[in-house]
Amino acid sequence: MHDNTTRASLFGRSIRGHTVLTISGELDMATTAVLRDRVAAALEDRAMPVIIDLSRVSFCDASGLRMLVAVRRRADAYGCTVALAAPRPNVRKLLRITGLDQVFPIYPTLAQAMPGRVDACGPAVA
């Protein structure tokens, strides 16, 4: 899957039992609505732990943070975990300042996020 918005793109793939979503570009008000819908569609297709690769995100504002939280809520509804991988220093700082570094597991690289570090998921239990 490869989708483009004005200044951001999303590429999803399965790697070693994980759904890896790589976001490139800017996460702001102009891009997050479309990305959020595409991420939601990717989560419906697969019932695996999710890793969001942020290594190519150059900018993130409050809209981008809201999108990440929405992704986590949707994944929680499917019984899946969400981890963030490789955020650039400016994005990592924003995650720390807002306290979202306490909400998401954050790994310095995509490789470190995968080897058994994200719990498997299954159907949500009501």
UniProtKB/TrEMBL annotation:
<dbReference type="InterPro" id="IPR002645">
    <property type="entry name" value="STAS_dom"/>
</dbReference>
<dbReference type="InterPro" id="IPR036513">
    <property type="entry name" value="STAS_dom_sf"/>
</dbReference>
<protein>
    <recommendedName>
        <fullName>Anti-sigma factor antagonist</fullName>
    </recommendedName>
</protein>
<dbReference type="Pfam" id="PF01740">
    <property type="entry name" value="STAS"/>
</dbReference>
<dbReference type="InterPro" id="IPR003658">
    <property type="entry name" value="Anti-sigma_ant"/>
</dbReference>
<feature type="domain" description="STAS">
    <location>
        <begin position="8"/>
        <end position="117"/>
    </location>
</feature>
<dbReference type="GO" id="GO:0043856">
    <property type="term" value="F:anti-sigma factor antagonist activity"/>
</dbReference>
<comment type="similarity">
    <text>Belongs to the anti-sigma-factor antagonist family.</text>
</comment>
